Amino acid sequence: MKRAHRNFQFASIRQKLFFSYILLIVIPIVVLGLYSYYQSKLLLQKQALQGIQETIRTISDNMDYKADQYNRIMDSIVYNTGILKIFNNDYTDVSNLSYDLRSYLDPTFNMIKGMNKEIIQLTVYTQNKLPEYGDFIQNSSRVSETNWYRSASANVNTEWYWEDGNLIVARKIPDIFQLRNPSTVSMNLTYSKMFEGVQGKEMNNFGIVVRDKNANVVYSNSAYLKQRPLFEAMGKSSKIGNQEYFIIEEQIQHPNWTLSYFIPLHEVSINATSIIKATVIIVLVCFLILLLMIWMFSNMFTIPIKRLIHKMKLIENGNLDIVVSSNSIDEFGILTNRFGQMLQKINELILVGYQNKIDRQKAEFKALQSQINPHFLYNTLSAIKWKSVQAGQEEISKIVTSLSKFYRTALNKGDTIISVREEVVNMRSYVEIMLIMRESSFDVHYDFEEDIFRYVTISLILQPIVENCIEHGIAGKTDGRGTITVTGRSRDGYIEITVEDNGVGMTEEKAREVLSRESRGYGLKNVNDRLKLFFGEEYGISIESTLGKGTVMTVRFPKGEEPLPGM
């Protein structure tokens, strides 16, 4: 990577343009080609899945049709007046019961079984005192412990059950007079007949699972998929073992079942070879055409630059009389003409004495600089001080004295380096001014180790920090009296000065922001940047603050008893 970057860096502008254009064109073409390929593949895959889904829907509709037939048979039984008469009547004469069974029950049940060979058994389970009558009437005690019977006897609708390998359709016979124990009719169906259409649709590695409303697996063509916990953990797609599957689900309405179809991912993967070939051919043709255009344009752009470089070499060899100009109005033409104008100006300046002009400008600059005399400011403040003393204005005298001290140490005769003692005096002078201006509305405590005063630092680093504590810390405090504590300590190899307030504090985001964003005036970012510039990245300001409790600002700079080199 570094070698490629170095080669690009030393390449000519024509080569850079050439390779830049290629890069900018190849990436979109390749991305567009890949996008088209994957979209086409997804579309074909979606169409394949839709076809499979239609097949599943057909299977589901077929099973739903069969289930609806059995539901209708069950309706014909429970609403048959002759059968209702048998199971809602207290028989005192056995001959009447025998007559009703031969007249109504036998012909009805035999006709149903005769017309529907897949019905293995058709039985009414009753709690009444009716005698058992072959398979058609049996006492409910035979099935009272089964789950399907308990559910069906409590339900007025036709329900489907899969229990102990039996496929059962059951429904409670209405109790017309609501005086008797209800009876329940059940049909045992041939399992293979019910799922005949499903089994015929099996192919390759496709998996089929049919679940009842309680998520019990009624049918599955795979022993692995019969595991109920495994199935419940699946979504619309799942990995079973080492095989990735799509899962399509359809509802079978009348038995209230769910048909789930597991399709291996490779079964719906589309052979996109033709799409790939077409995409590659189109990309290559576009690339070749664009390659020719890039070569032409890169040459067109670099010819004016080559001409300008040739003239620059002539000027470098001392030929200042050469004419540099261009008739083009693009950026290269403007650059050439500006260079020609600059060359003309240089020749003019040489002729009129360019060096003399520079010397005169330097003299004028020094004259202006010498007019800035801080002693005038000190003398003026001194005069104001004595006038205020004469007038008995002690407070004015005090604030002028503090202001004079502040500017004397702040200006420091123009020097950047200042002793720690003078920097502390400068900061304290500012605090005294603020106390007078704010009518001593806050307290200030100082705690400095005497050892730190023999070292030096850069000027104006403490005053902006204290100003920030006053203006943004304790000024916003609504309860209690504000307090600022300034502490100076000598550490191993560096000086540490902390300024702590009990003001409103700030968030971590705000603390980072005040050190990274410019503010009006001489802000904390300015101080922090100057400290790092003079002393190194390991020094500067750090902020610890708790919203509503206060802020601690810490300044660190190395110990130095002599001015830093070049300061």
Notes on the protein architecture:
With 567 residues, this protein is of the alpha+beta class. It is 52% helix and 19% strand. The chain has helices spanning 2-9, 13-78, 81-87, 94-115, 147-152, 191-194, 196-200, 228-232, 265-268, 273-316, 331-352, 354-370, 374-390, 394-411, 420-437, 463-473, 508-514, 524-535, and strands at residues 119-126, 137-139, 159-163, 166-173, 183-189, 207-211, 217-220, 237-240, 243-252, 257-264, 417-419, 442-448, 456-458, 482-490, 494-501, 540-546, 550-558. It has a five-stranded mixed beta sheet. Strands 7-6-10-9-8 form a five-stranded antiparallel beta sheet. α2 (13-78) packs antiparallel against α10, α3 crosses α4 (94-115) and α13 (374-390) runs antiparallel to α14. The longest helix is centred in the N-terminal third of the chain and has 66 residues, at 13-78. The protein is elongated. Residues 361-376 and 563-567 have low confidence and may be disordered.
Quick recap:
The protein is 52% helix and 19% strand. The protein has 567 residues and is α+β, with helices and mostly antiparallel strands.
What form results from the Cα inertia axes?
elongated
Enumerate how many helices there are, as a single number: 18
- Give the averaged pLDDT, no decimals: 76
- Regarding quaternary structure, what we see is single chain
Name the helicity range.
40-55%
Which structural class is indicated by helix and strand composition?
A: alpha+beta
Any low-confidence stretches, pLDDT <50, length ≥5? 361-376, 563-567
Radius of gyration: 49 Å
Note the beta-strand portion: 15-25%
Biggest sheet statistics: 5 strands, mixed
The tally of beta strands, per DSSP, is 17
For the largest sheet, list the strands in their spatial order.
Answer: 2-1-5-4-3
Distance between the termini: 42 Å
